[in-house]
Amino acid sequence: MVLKKLKKVTAPSFEMVPLLVTFVLLATVGFLIHKYLTWHYDTFKKLGIVGPAPKIWHGNFTGKQQIAYDYDDIYNKYRQKHQIVGMFAYRQPQFLIIDPKLAHEVLVTNFKSFRNNLGKRFLYDKEADPVAALNPFFNVGEEWKTIRSDIMSGLTHHKLSSAYTIWKTCTEKLGKLLSAQTAKGSSIIETKDLVLRYTFNIMGEFLWGIETKTLESLDEPNHYLEVSHRLIHQVFHGFMSYYKCLPFPWCRRFANYRIFTAESDHMFSQFTKDAYVLRERDASKTNQADFLHYVRQLQEKKSLSHYEVVGYLLAVFTDGFDTSGTVAFHTLFYLTHHPECQEKLRKEILNNLEADGNMNYETLNVLPYLDQCVHETLRMISPITFKSRLCTESTEIVLDDGRRIPIKKGQVVTIPVFSYLHDPEYFEDPLEFRPERFENVDISELTKRGIFLPFSDGPRMCLGRHLGFLQIKTAIVEVLKNYRLKVCDKTPPIAKLDSHALINGVDGDLFIEYERL
Ligand code: HEM
Q1: Which residues line ligand 1 (CB under 6 A)?
Q2: What count of other Cβ atoms lies within 10 Å of the Cβ of residue 482?
Q3: Helix-strand-coil percent breakdown of the chain, rounded to 5?
């Protein structure tokens, strides 16, 4: 009787077989997926490199904060005793460089082994993203070299100083807008929007010779600006889709993988066509000093296609409009919270204006305290918080104790720029905004030591920094020469980083009170 009962329970009935098979199949698939996701977890152990234990899927990212903070948590845990640690960005093993002198090696002295960033991997489909594909950041090899050198030649100090009237005109428009706004009693201004309208306006003039009307009113939404914000947002999503799909890269085709939006490709292509028509119709509309003029000459010399021209123009636009605007409004933000620095800077500015109330190009570039304030802002909130490099030629990193760490072709090395900038060993009281720390300091020396890398370093270093400084400094001069900036109820306290933006920055709106001097 008991046997009979047991038999009933243990022997699978005919109907249970499919259930069991399904169970076994699911368990096998689960086991294989688990194995696939974790089989390489001993990568660093085998090399004798320490690092935090990864979690399935996110690796050592928490998925809850800005990636800069994730890298920073790891950095702080290991900085006392280690020069390099092993970690996982989702499923991807990465060498995290803790010692800045090794960062210099990766970016500069051993560049031949680390020629590429992850740009080429971010760009999933060149055909689907034809304009983004022309940005140096997404390129490698000879193509990268050519595009980079073509763009850089249009942005030299000489070229920018010849085009400086564009900046003068745009700062005048910024001044008028601020006057109109404060005259009607609205002295509390959302400064992110204000400054991005300014950098956008300059880009319109410098790259396409067109007036984008972003500085006509703060109350009116501007279609061009909205398209550009969507573009920058999409660049962020394009990058993130690369990371999020790392566990199963083939998923990328189903993700939101484009880097530029089709809408912005179309709009800027039309800008370019319109600008060409304007110049062909009326030669007096040609500004021989602007970037469009330079690109048109380049097009003739090298027979560039329309899309190549748009690609060059958009490389300058996308990499230059948001980054420099962000640094400019962060500088204003810190100066608002530090009235003593603001007064000191205003004094310097007012003492160096020309008779017509403007500042000339040469003076703008050499004002010491202005320079210190901008560099301190770059240190406090560097728009780019880390740099990853792809090993392009197997090599070794030699540690101080003589150990040789092999890095194989295809492996990724990450430099936590944000962490170096906030390490008290390199910058005393790193959370304090103190521009004077850069007084009589040779920035290039700090860059060489690997501790000051907001523009990175080496052959792939930011190619637009002169243009960036021009945008940032002109905006600050224009605002401070006429207005005292004050904290109001809506001004955010000292920065928390936004976790949903491409360019690192203060979360949310940035209201500041403008008091006419
Ligand atoms: C203050 C503002 C800016 C900051 C903080 C900044 C920062 C950076 C950083 C960190 C890189 C990465 C370099 C690397 O991979 O090692 C970069 C690359 C680049 N930046 Fe900037 N940038 C700024 C403004 C600009 C402007 C105004 C332009 C306009 C032309 C620009 C154009 C580029 C381009 C084209 C690259 C890719 C270079 C390459 O891969 O060869 N940037 N920038």
Answers
A1: 117, 136-137, 148, 155, 315-316, 319-320, 323-324, 327, 383-384, 387, 454-456, 460-465, 467-468
A2: 17
A3: 55, 10, 35
Predicted ipTM > 0.95:
yes
Q: d(Cα 292, Cα 272) in Å, to the nearest integer?
A: 9
Helices (H), 135-163: 141-153, 157-162
Distance 4 CA to ligand 1 centre (A): 78
What tokens does 435 get?
């521009």
Provide the greatest CA pair distance for the chain: 112
Pick the atom of ligand 1 nearest to 459's CA: 41
Nearest Cα neighbor of 239 from 123, 385, 386 is 123
Answer yes or no: are the C-beta atoms of 136 and 148 closer than 8 Å.
yes
Ligand 1 center from residue 315 Cα (angstroms): 10
User: Of the candidates 136, 132, 115, which has an alpha carbon nearest to the alpha carbon of residue 123?
Assistant: 132
Tokens describing residue 448:
């060489």
Find, among 290, 353, 251, the residue nearest to 154 by Cα. 290
The radius of gyration of the chain's CA atoms, rounded to the nearest angstrom, is 26
341 labelled as ligand-binding?
no
Could you tell me the distance, in angstroms and rounded to a whole number, from the CA of residue 424 to the centre of ligand 1?
26
Cα 451–Cα 453–Cα 455 angle in degrees, nearest 5: 165
Order of strands, sheet of 412-415, starting from the edge strand that comes earlier in the sequence: 84-89, 92-97, 412-415, 387-390
Of all atoms in ligand 1, which is nearest to the CA of residue 472? 1
DSSP 472-496: HHHHHHHHHHHEEEE--TTS--S--
Which DSSP category does 192 fall into?
Answer: H
How many whole angstroms separate alpha carbon 312 and alpha carbon 96? 33
For residue 389, the ligand 1 atom closest to its alpha carbon is: 15
d(CA 246, CA 234) in angstroms, rounded, equals 18
What tens digit of pLDDT does each residue of 222-269 get?
Answer: 999 999 999 998 998 888 889 889 888 888 888 878 899 999 999 999
* Closest ligand 1 atom to Cα of 384: 10
Asked whether the beta carbons of 329 and 510 are under 8 A apart, the reply is yes
Any idea of the CA torsion for 323, 220, 181, 350, to the nearest 10 degrees? 30
Best residue for ligand 1 mutational test, from 455, 457, 469, 472 (most atoms within 8 Å of Cβ)? 455
How far apart are the CA of 425 and the centre of ligand 1, in A? 27
Mean pLDDT, rounded, of the chain:
92
pTM of the model: 0.93
